[in-house]
Amino acid sequence: MALQRQNDSRNDIMNAFDPKYNDNMSYQFIGEESEFIPLMASEEDENLNIDEVPEELPILPLRNTVLFPGVVIPITVGRDKSIKLIRDANKGSKIIGVLTQMDVEVEEPEQDDLYEVGTVAQILKMLRMPDGSTTAIIQGKRRFTLESLTATEPYLKAKVSLFNEHKPEAGDSEFEATVSSIRDMALEIIQASPNLPSEAAFAIKNIESPGFLVNFISSNLNAETEEKQEMLEVSDLKQRATMLLQGLHKEFQLLELKNQIQSKVKVDIDRQQREYFLHQQMRMIQEELGNGESQDIKELRQKAAKKKWPAAVKKTFEKELAKLERMNSMVAEYSVQLNYLEFMIELPWNTYTKDKFDLNRAKRILDRDHFGLEKVKERILEHLAVLKLRGDMRAPILCLAGPPGVGKTSLGKSIAEALGRSYSRMSLGGMRDESEIRGHRKTYIGAMPGRILQNLKKAGAANPVFILDEIDKLSHDIHGDPSSALLEVLDPEQNSTFHDNFLDVDFDLSKVLFIATANNLGNIQPALRDRMEIIHISGYSVEEKIEIAKKHLLPKQIKEHGLSPEHLKLRKPALEYLIQHYTRESGVRRLEQQVAAVVRKAAVAIASEQEFDPIITKERLNDMLGPAIPRERYTQFNRAGVVVGLAWTAVGGDILYIETSLSKGKGRLSLTGNLGGVMKESAQLALEFLKSNAGLLDLDQELFDRWNVHLHVPEGATPKDGPSAGITMLTALASAFTQRKVKAGLAMTGEITLRGQVLPVGGIKEKVLAARRADIKEVILCEDNRRDVEEIEPAYVKGLKFHYVRTMEEVLSIALLKQKVAQAIRIE
What we know:
Blueprint: E1 2-4, E2 36-38, H1 42-47, E3 56-62, E4 72-77, H2 80-91, E5 95-100, E6 117-128, E7 134-151, E8 157-162, H3 173-192, H4 199-205, H5 210-219, H6 225-232, H7 237-288, H8 295-306, H9 311-326, H10 332-346, H11 359-369, H12 374-390, E9 397-401, H13 408-419, E10 423-427, H14 435-438, H15 451-459, E11 465-469, H16 482-489, E12 498-499, E13 506-507, E14 513-518, H17 526-530, E15 533-536, H18 542-560, E16 569-570, H19 572-582, H20 589-607, E17 615-616, H21 618-625, E18 642-649, E19 652-664, E20 669-672, H22 677-692, E21 707-712, H23 726-738, E22 740-742, E23 746-748, E24 751-752, E25 758-759, H24 764-773, E26 778-782, H25 786-790, E27 801-805, H26 808-815, E28 816-820
Helix pairs in contact: 3-4, 3-5, 3-7, 5-7, 8-10, 9-10, 11-12, 11-13, 18-19, 18-20, 22-23, 23-26
């Protein structure tokens, strides 16, 4: 008799009598290439107690498993100590001691965590599973008693003593009757359970040894680990057989009860079917009496008669409605089908709002609600003009990219009003489930349509202005990637046949004006970014913020706080001081909060009937808002190696000091200031260029091997990265090695190459405005950045002188003076 070995990865036994394990045990599929592990014959059972057992054994602790003598089980080894134990034993005698843990949660069991009685086991096979785990097939040999642990490293070892087995005398009729009852009861359980294979009965019939039969069935009994351990610790085989028979009787009774319950459930299902047919007959009778259709179906038919939907959609609706009519209204599927049809009929099929083609009116609305943002306004007016001339066109997919607080989201409402369309907004921040876009299949419990169609249903039209807010904050997990689902939504060639899993018919999204907003385009996957028309929105200048505060923020806050314009007046100098000393951002969100704080102070004074001067000055702002934020201004340093760079941040531009110092050494370069990888590479590039072109500055090549260079960028807690500080770093290094002064009032930005070329960088508007705020007088830029400067309003760059360069030689000739700094160190 033989059992086919399974490549089983669980660490519990193959429980032949437990339905939850039945799919992991099979006796059929026996082919020519299968490996076989023989069951124990009678003579082998007799020899179990004869085999010699070492006094010291390596101990393998098991969870939820009790190994009986003669029984073969697969175990998955997960703990490092256990893996080493199995490997060492498999190379040696293959004999180990197996003990069951009392508490499965203990990772490093000690003697008190293990039962005292265990089983000596022999490793039959060790397997490396596809998932990388180790599985061993072991066979119990005989029982032992744990005396004491002798070692815990590299795995448990223990001194053991033999556990003697007391077998009944030959011809004991009571024991033979008990064994026969055990065999019969096990066969009855197999026959009564639909989940157990019939081959299990064949195996039990062919077990000849009474002791092994008791052990085999005890091992596979559906009982708790404590009960099985109690059986293992019984030395008298006759007593153990009696305990097993009691357990089998209990199992058989539970199985009979389960079968009775299943039979009762089947009767209940039959009753439901009978009721369904009776309801159908009742419906037919009601139709004969003129009371055929339910109120729900009548309302659906009336609404459907007024819909102007495509023929394919109409056909699907009628088919699903006919299915609803055939359903029993008492079953759960009825409400699911009814919800589906109600959603389908409430969608705006071929329902469009009429666009208002008055371009002057549209421009007035956009200018009224938002200051600046000229590129966006221009693009909307272009779309409206083409729509007016052509009469029909696919809507563009726009993406407004810029820092927080510049009005990207609120711009959608103004665009909707300017076009005369409905407005809908969907926040994508943190969304990580694809079904949020495409919906669930309606066959699932609690299925819902995607949020795209849900918002269109709320909008009541198929051509709204649809804001996809924070598209760069999309996430993904095991439930799918919503950014990939948006590829269909935001592709003008595909979205005319958008497929929602819940609706299960195509819906036309081509007339929807999608406007996405983002702070960081780098977080948007390339395929999705390629489908959108990117419009960059840079931060506001101080002058723009003053106008926004005067025209929008201050009137809004005065109205929201119940005041009138006469109660509070913020003049331009006070607004400029408020912006420069109490906010540091590209947008106006923080500015609105500070304006609201000023208005609240005024509201408290007026409500308390205190004397209050409505004109707010700079001095009064300090009293109302507290100490001002220190403003970053240019400071001239009379020392070599310090140069001012320009940086872009998420809240606008800023100036950046690059500091360099030299010390005697072996030419080591140290970089500090929380610099990113690209910025560190720029510093290495600058130093290598200076070494290879030392002759340009009359420097000795050997100087670089005798001086250590330390380059630091202040505000070390702030992470910094990017290539735009390349020319600044090179200028700082050149100044340090030559000890020449750097031109006062000068700032610069640009990327460098090993060939000494200066490359263009981004964020020019923010950087230039930051330079002007910091009282910088001259700025060095790449020649290719000239067009970026020309796009800035002339008033915002008034007083700045720009130097446009292509090579590092030009940068050094402008930035470095012939004069050396005071107290110059001698570099030689």
